[in-house]
Design a protein that fits this description.
The protein has 439 residues and is an alpha/beta fold. It has 16 helices and twelve strands. A four-stranded parallel beta sheet has the order 2-1-7-8. β11 and β12 form a beta hairpin. The chain starts with a strand and ends with a strand. Bound molecules: zinc ion (ZN).
């Protein structure tokens, strides 16, 4: 997966939270299902915004980029987005981009102008594929900019020649810096290879960013992404609402003022292609739902899952009574990642677990509660307030030990207890099964 990352010149905003959560959930689900996922997400560490920010703050572009990249990772950590496997930075890839632009110039699909190098979109037969519009329609709707030497308003910059005092890199077609669209096509092809599976980003990137990435790959004769994923907008409601939203100016602010899991639950409760509304009311609603989940965790002393660790299905045991739930959730998520349906099924299971426990069927109730915990964990949502936070491996040992005890296989139960102790846990027996906590 290649997921277009941020340009680091400001605090992450709410839209950044949406796309990182949506594709984090997809990544976690693929991994849970046993796929081997390589997740690449870039950092754009040079562009006009960074240059302007450095001027305004009287500092350097490098310091702006480093400062806001740190803010980015802090926010990602708090929102529970797992770190990408590879994080390419644009400034580390300039030489590769120069080589790529030379190919496009040699093939005559790019042209030189006084202020840089441009891509000629008329040379790509199916330009407009991702936008879902023909070239003529796109051209008619395009904004004509003054002072640019483009042949067509849709043509885009592959390379911008350096103005005085701007950072620049050497190139045979004039010192300068790469365009954003070139950055992503070069880095994704280099790190994931031709014909990679999935290229993702927000709906705002579908056109022109992704269209232009694809156009360059097509023009260079390089098979590109097989599938594209675009997540919906973040709505902040009407004017009245945005006034009351004054508090949530950035993702960083939102995370300081709310349960950091609330945004993930809102994302899970909407389909990834639909718009999502972030407001004090929707956040409060998500926090109430989280309270229900945490109450389940306390009642059944569930171990805390999710976080940086990506769970896999085989880490868990699925008692027969939970297999229907498991199958329903798998079916929902495998159908274009229908998280709202899966979450609805999981909340129904929460009610069922509580009802079962109320009527005295503690074993079945606990099985169901653990399945709910495991499936929310697979989506990156941790239930809190139960037992100490543990990884999936320890959780699996606990469940295997309970099975061994139920089967009166005391030798196996003792062996599993020793394994847990070796992992640093204090192990206790309770009426509802094995409890582990840190000593
Ligand atoms: Zn991109």
């Amino acid at each position: 997966m290649y997921v277009c990352g941020p340009t680091v010149y400001d605090l992450p905003h709410l839209g950044h939270g949406r796309f990182t959560l949506v594709w984090d959930v997809a990544r976690r689900w693929f991994t849970f299902q046993g796929l081997r996922v390589t997740y690449v997400s870039n950092i754009t560490d040079i562009d006009d915004n960074i240059i302007n920010r450095a001027l305004a703050d009287q500092t350097t572009e490098v310091q702006v980029a480093q400062h806001y990249e740190q803010q980015w990772w802090d926010a990602m950590g708090r929102i529970g987005v797992a770190t990408p496997d590879i994080v390419p930075h644009a400034t580390q890839y300039v030489a590769e981009m120069v080589t790529f632009i030379e190919v496009l110039l040699a093939d005559d699909v790019a042209y030189l102008a006084d202020d840089g190098v441009y891509f000629d979109v008329s040379r790509v037969a199916d330009y407009g594929l991702l936008a879902g519009q023909a070239l003529d329609t796109l051209r008619a709707g395009a904004r004509v900019e003054a002072n640019v030497q483009k042949r067509s308003p849709l043509d885009f910059a592959l390379w911008k020649k350096a103005k005085p005092h701007e950072p620049s890199w050497p190139a045979p077609f004039g010192d300068g810096r790469p365009g954003w669209h070139t950055e992503c096509v070069v880095m994704s092809l280099d790190l994931l290879g031709e014909d990679f599976d999935l290229h993702c980003g927000g709906l705002d990137l579908r056109f022109p960013h992704h269209e232009n990435e694809r156009a360059q790959a097509v023009a260079a004769g390089r098979p590109f992404a097989r599938h594209w994923g675009h997540n919906g907008w973040v709505m902040v409601g009407d004017e009245k609402m945005s006034k009351s939203l004054g508090n949530f100016t950035s993702l960083t602010d939102l995370l300081e003022k709310t349960d950091s899991r609330a945004y993930r639950l809102l994302v899970l409760r909407s389909h990834y292609r639909s718009p999502i509304e972030i407001s004090p009311a929707t956040i409060a609603d998500a926090e109430r739902a989280l309270a229900r989940l945490d109450a389940l965790a306390r009642r059944f002393e569930l171990v805390e899952l999710a976080g940086a660790h990506l769970e896999v299905k085989s880490d868990f045991d699925w008692p027969p009574s939970t297999r229907d739930l498991f199958a329903e959730v798998v079916e929902a998520l495998d159908e274009d990642l229908d998280t709202p349906l899966a979450v609805a099924q999981l909340f129904e299971a929460v009610s069922r677990a509580n009802t079962l426990a109320d009527s005295g069927d503690v074993v079945q109730a606990r099985h169901l509660a653990r399945a709910v915990n495991a499936l929310f964990g697979a989506l990156g949502l941790a239930l809190k307030g139960g037992a100490d936070s543990v990884d999936g491996i320890s959780q699996a040992l606990v469940e295997r030990r309970d099975e061994a005890r139920n089967a009166r296989n005391w030798a196996e139960a003792d062996r599993l207890r020793d394994e847990l102790v070796a992992l640093g846990w204090t192990v206790e027996d309770s009426g509802s099964g094995t409890l582990i906590r840190r000593p």
